[in-house]
């Protein structure tokens, strides 16, 4: 009896597998690709945050006391996976920090209130 049931269902099962397996593989491939993109986005966001903080470190130290070295070191220690993922060397990290320094200076200048005593 089971042999007869299997003989009847075998072509149906084979047809279903022929349809479902490629669909499942395709769905898994898309999921893994999305997962990879999500991880890259997390690295990118973490790197941007570290660059902003490094800019604050550099500005706080001023032009002396190894400000750029401390900022680069902060980025390397803060987000080592992102640095490795994007293949960043010290020169490239510094290039990425500079716009954050400029943006931080501009933002600080906007928020400073003029001294009423100085305005005459």
Mean of residue pLDDT values: 83
> Helical amount among residues, as a percent range?
over 70%
Shape: rod-shaped
The number of strands is 0
Spans with pLDDT under 50 lasting ≥5 residues? none
Q: What structural category do the secondary elements indicate?
A: mainly alpha
Short account of what is shown:
The chain has one domain. 83% of the residues lie in helices and 0% in strands. The protein contains four helices and no strands.
Please provide a written account of the structure.
By secondary structure, this protein is mostly helical. It has one domain. Helix content is 83%, strand content 0%. It contains 4 helices and no strands. Helix 1 packs antiparallel against helix 2 and helix 1 crosses helix 4. It is rod-shaped and about 100 Å long.
Record the SSE blueprint.
Blueprint: H1 2-61, H2 67-78, H3 80-85, H4 90-111
Any descriptors?
0% strand; mainly alpha; 120 residues
